[in-house]
Amino acid sequence: MANVTFASITKQFGTVKAVDDVSFELADGEFVCLLGPSGCGKTTTLRMIAGLEQPTSGRISIGGEDVTDAKPKERDIGMVFQDYALFPHMTIEANIAYPLKVRGVGARERAARAAEVAASLQIDQLLARRPGQISGGQQQRTSLARAVVHKPRVYLFDEPLSNLDAKLRLEARSFLKHLQRELGVTSIYVTHDQAEAMALADRVAVMDKGRIVQIGPPLEVYHRPATTFVANFLGSPPMNLLPVRLEGDAFHAGPLRVDARGFADRLRGVAEGSELTLGLRPEHLRLGGEGDEWTVPGHVYAVEPLGPESLVTLRVGEGLVTARLFGDEAPQVTGDARFAFDPKNLHLFGADGRRIQVP
Amino acid sequence: MKLVRHVLARVGFYVLAALFAALFALPLLWLLFAPFSAKANLAVALPDPFTFSNFGKVFANSFAVRALFQNSVIQAVGAMVLVTLLATLAAYALSRAPIRGRDALSYGLVLFSSIVTGTAAMVPLFLLIFQLGLIDTHVGVILVFTGGLLPAAIFIMRDFVDSIPRSYEESALVAGASPWGMFRDIALPIVRPGMMVVGVWTFVNVWGGFLVPFILLRSPSKMPAAVAIYSFYTEGGTPIITLTTAYALLYTLPVLALYLFVNWKYGFRFFGGIKS
User: Fold this and answer.
1) What is the pLDDT of residue B252?
2) Taking residues A68-93, what's their average pLDDT?
3) What is the DSSP letter of B135?
4) Cα–Cα distance between A10 and A33 in angstroms, integer?
5) From the CA of A179, how many Å to the nearest CA of chain B?
6) Taking burial as the number of CB atoms within 10 A of a residue's CB, which of A2, A47, A77, B179 is the most buried?
7) Residue A319 banded pLDDT, cuts 50, 70, 90
8) What is the mean predicted confidence (pLDDT) over A306-315?
9) Contact yes or no for A87 and B186 at CB 8 A
10) Peptide bond into A237 cis (omega under 30)
C-alpha cells in the first residue's frame, strides 16, 4: 500500500499532447477514478503509472519513491486491462499465479495462493480451464485475481467493466467496491462511464483534452461542477445547459426569460449583456403551473416512462430541456408545458464555461 | 427430360473430377508401386513380380544413403532451425518496435525475395560463398538457403506476431516479467503454430532444393539426397526406374513424418489469430 504522486506530468505523442501538465496525489488506500471521454488522456495517465508509457516531463512517485524511470516490474502494481489480457495458452490457475511465478515463488505456494485468491473471487472451480472456456464475467474475475495475487502496492483498472453486459456490470461494480474497501489498497480506475466513477470512487478526476478539469469527491463534483464540460459529463441524463444573455434583471434566450434578481450576489462583476450558461439538473425540475415564479416554458417533445421515474423533454427555443419526474405513473402532458425549479438549484456558468459562484 | 439432363450433368461432373483426381493420383501411385517391382517402367502397374530387392540395392549405395540420412538432414535441419529462430525474432521486432516504414520494409523483403529467384542470383551467390571460403561446406549451403527463405518466413511470422494483442505482453510486464521473460512465457507459446509452419516450410524447401547444393558443394560425401538421386542413373544418363523410385520413396518419408508429427502435436495454421 502506498500513496501515489503525479507531479506536472506531460506526455506528448508527436505533436499531440495526450496529457498536459497533470498533477494529483492519491492518499494511501484511496480510490480515485479518472473520468472522461475517449481521447481525454485518462488511459495514457494510467499507463504512465504502470510504466507502460514514459512521461515526456514530470515525475511520478509511488510510496514516496520516484518511479518515473522505473520498469513496470519494479513498480509493484497490479493492473486489470479492458480486454482482461488473460494468457490464452495458460490455465486459469497459471494465469492467476503468473505474477508469483515471475517473482520466483515455488510451485506449491503458487498453487496455494492462486487457490486462495480464486476462492475469494468465487472462481476456484475454474482453475483447470483455459480463458477461452469461461464466460466474460469469469474472465474479468480471473484478471482481477491475477492483479491482486501478489499483493501489490497499487491497483490500476483500465475500464475493467466495459466489456461486460449491463446486468453483469452492475454486479461487478458492487463487487469491486466491496473488494477495494476490504483490501484498502490505493486504486486508480479509468472509465468513461460517469455512473461507475460516481459509484466507486473516493474522488473523481474529470479529464478533458489531456487536463484534469476538476477533482473532488463524487457528490461535490456532481453538485458543484467547475465547468459546463463537467456538468454535461456527469449525471444521466446530463445537466440541462441553456445559453442565455444577461439583460436587465433577467436571463434571455429567445422567448425564454428567467428572472435574475435572486442571483445578485453571484452576478456581481458580470457585465450587462454577457453571454452566460444556465444549468439545471433534470431531477431538480418538476412540472410547473402559472403560479410558479421560476419556470422554463416550452413545448412537449417526448415523454419516456422508465418505471419508477419518467423523462419529460420540452423543446425550449432551439434546445431541449429534460426533467426526471419521479412517480410510478407517466405524467400526462401534451402541447405547451413548463418546468418549475428552485432558484437555489440553478447553476451559472460564464462565457468561458467556468462556474460562477458567490465569491 | 429435366431428369436426364440433371443425371448427365452429374455424370459429366464426376467424370471430370475423376480425370483431375487421376492427374494427381497417378504419379503418386506410380511412386508407391514402382519401387516394389522387379522390372518397373513409366506405366502405373501393380508390382509384378513383387520384391524388396530394389531397396537392398539402394542401401548398398553408401553415397546415396549418406546423402539422404546425413547430408540432407544436416542441411535441412540447420536451415530450419536458423530460419525459424531468426524469422521469429525479426518478425517480433518488426511488429513491435516503432521503426519508421516497417510495413514497407516487410513488403519490400517479400517482393525482392520472390522477384530475384535463386537461379538468377546463383552466380553472385557462388562468388560470395567462394570469397567467404564456404564452398563445399554444409554451412555455405545452409546460409544461402537461410538468406533466400528468410524474407518470406519473416513475412509469414509477422502475421502471427501482429495477431497477439499487445495487452498480453503489457499485462505480463506489469505482472513483473522482464522483457525476455515476457517473450518466453507469452509471445513464444502463442506464435508457436506460426513457427511450426515456417519450420516445416523451410525444411521442405531445403530438403527438395537441388541447385544450391549442386553448385556450392564439391565432395560427394557432402551432397544431399536431391543431388545423390543422380547416382541411380546409368552412365548414359537414363534413370534406373526401380532404383530411383525406391530412393525417391525413402526421400519423401521424412517430410511426411515431419508434417504428421507437427500436425499431431501442434496443429497447422497458415494464419495468425488467437482463439481464446
Assistant:
1) 92
2) 91
3) T
4) 19
5) 20
6) A77
7) confident
8) 91
9) yes
10) yes
Contact B275 A85 (CB under 8 A): no
Strands (E) across A63-101 are located at 65-66, 77-80
User: Residue B195 region, left (φ>0) first, then alpha (ψ -120 to 50), else beta?
Assistant: alpha
Chain segment B86-139, per-residue pLDDT in tens: 999 999 888 888 777 877 877 787 777 766 666 778 888 899 999 999 999 999
Best CA proximity match to B172, nearest among A293, A99, A229, A212: A99
Q: Lowest mean pLDDT: which of A62-71, A209-218, A286-295, A340-349? A: A286-295
- Whether A110 shows a pLDDT value over 80: the answer reads yes
If you measure CA to CA, which chain A residue comes closest to B191? A89
Q: Nearest residue of B to residue A76 by CA position?
A: B176
- Cell digits of residue B253: 518419408
Secondary structure (3-state) at A348? strand
Nearest-CA distance from A50 to chain B in Å? 7
A52 close contact with B: CB closer than 8 A: yes
- Whether A149 has a pLDDT exceeding 80, the answer reads yes
Cell numbers of A294, please?
421560476
Instruction: Report the gap between the CA of B136 and the closest CA in chain A (Å).
Output: 44
pLDDT beneath 70: ranges in chain B: 114-118, 267-276
Distance CA B245, CA B122 (A): 29
Q: Which residues of B115-149 are buried (b: 16+ CB within 10 A; e: fewer)?
A: eeebeeebeebbeebeeeebeebbebbbbbbbbbb
Cβ proximity of A329 and A335 under 8 Å: no
Which residues in B have their CB inside 8 Å of a CB on A?
165, 167-168, 170-178, 181, 185-186, 189-190, 274-276
Q: Is B214 exposed, middle or buried (0-12, 13-18, 19+ CB in 10 A)?
A: middle
What cell does B132 get?
567467404
Residues in A 113-172 with any Cβ partner in B closer than 8 A? 130-132, 143, 146, 150, 156
Q: Which three cell numbers stand for residue A183?
A: 483490501
Q: How many CB atoms lie within 10 A of CB B2?
A: 6
Q: pLDDT averaged over chain A? A: 89
User: ipTM score here?
Assistant: 0.81
- In sequence order, what are the residues at sequence separation of 6 or more whose Cβ sits closer than 8 angstroms to the Cβ of residue B140? B129, B132, B134, B216
Q: Is A105 on the interface with B (CB under 8 A)?
A: no
Chain B interface, best mutation among A77, A102, A117, by max B CB count within 10 A: A102
Q: In what order do the strands lie in the sheet with A347-349?
A: A256-259, A250-253, A240-247, A275-280, A347-349
Residue A170, helix vs strand vs coil: helix
- Which residue type sits at B76? A
Residue where the block lists cell 518466413 = B153
